[in-house]
Amino acid sequence: MTIVFAAAFLLAGPPRFLGPPEKKPADGEPPAVSTGAPAPLFSGPVQNPDAAGVQAVDLGALLRPGGRPATQAVLISFFSSACEACIKELSVLQNLSTAYGARGLRVILVAVDRDEPAQQRTARLLRDSGVTFPVLDDRDRRIAHLYLGSTVRLPSLFIVDGEGKLVAAKKGYADDPATFLPAQVAAAVR
To answer: Which pLDDT value is given to residue 168?
Structure first.
């Protein structure tokens, strides 16, 4: 019997590694989105209406599939006051919003802080950073789950073109956004 097993093992060759098992979303849980997919639509009140100049954001209203887009691209970034990389990203996002706003870029920050002290830190950081783009409160992580699935990795950002398609998706990235994001935004805004 041992000889038969050894012969079968030798004929089969070395074991193959097929990679980690793919994690399936739980029943009723939307999968995380990726480049090329339609962007999930969302809307919500803005935390900083005075600085942003709007009371609410509706992604569907910013995009006009099949017609002339109301905007060329929307950059959506997920933020937490506990994420140092997210805090560093704020100045890059503000610079891009200022530089490309007239060319059709809209930047939306989605704050995922759940508790009151973290939300207060976020409000202070936004004020101190001079953020003028809309910030949505996503303490229930409804929007985050649409884009990131069940695991919210930060920082994460997405670029949606005027037709509503995701043209860039970076989830839980470690790169400096100042090195890659300006080129991606310039390509999306054309």
So the answer is: 95
